[in-house]
Write a structure and sequence with these properties.
9 helices; 43% helix; alpha/beta; single chain
Length: 203
């Protein structure tokens, strides 16, 4: 907490004064263009990766960047998506996976999750990701899916889940969905094609 308190002090003394005009404008509201859905991993910082200023991204972070398919009932992820699309009117949604993802590693390496039932239940939202990765591996050399492969197929599976949300479906004619994979050691960001292969740098 000492480090966090020191960070707040630096923000108040140096960062905030340099952006005082920006924050004054944001005080009455924000109109981000992009909903950015990423993993909760501390190494993934959407604003840093994209060079975004405050107010430019609406961010949802979940373990494994998982997006449950739409279902009636209380759901914080669904509420965030609905707010970004229906109320803020974002034009783009990015689902961003990353290298060495702990959630995807646990699935690819079949970790024993019996002592963490909440994590095990949450990771069931990646069942389709595992099926996609397994099918891809079977079509190739026939080996088990790697963590990197699962990360990529998971991004595509979560984009499919995203499309089940009514707010996204209603805005389909004005929304563009993007699947990204961020590589931690190199800083590279790849945009995925529909078949789950890296297409080109996102930037």
């Amino acid at each position: 907490m000492h480090d966090l308190a020191a960070g707040v002090k630096r923000f108040q003394q140096h960062v905030f004064p340099a952006k005082a005009e920006l924050f004054a404008g944001l005080a009455s509201g924000h109109r981000p263009d992009t909903l950015f859905i990423s993993c909760s991993d501390a190494r993934v910082v959407p604003e840093l990766i994209t060079g975004s200023e405050p107010g430019e991204l609406f961010v949802i972070r979940t373990a494994g960047n998982l997006i449950p398919p739409y279902a009636p009932g209380p759901d914080g992820v669904a509420a965030g998506i609905e707010y970004a699309v229906a109320e803020l009117g974002v034009s783009d949604i990015v689902v961003c996976g990353h290298s060495a993802c702990g959630a995807m590693t646990a699935l690819a390496e079949h970790h024993d999750l019996t002592s963490t039932p909440a994590i095990a239940d949450w990771l069931r939202h990646a069942d389709a990701s595992r099926a996609r990765a397994a099918a891809g591996a079977a079509a190739g050399a026939g080996s088990a899916p790697t963590v990197d492969s699962l990360v990529r197929h998971n991004v595509l599976a979560q984009l499919a889940n995203l499309a089940t949300h009514p707010s996204v479906a209603r805005a389909a004619n004005r929304l563009t969905l993007h699947g990204w994979v961020y590589d931690i050691p190199t800083g590279a960001v790849e945009e995925l094609t529909p078949v789950g292969r890296p297409a080109s740098p996102a930037a």
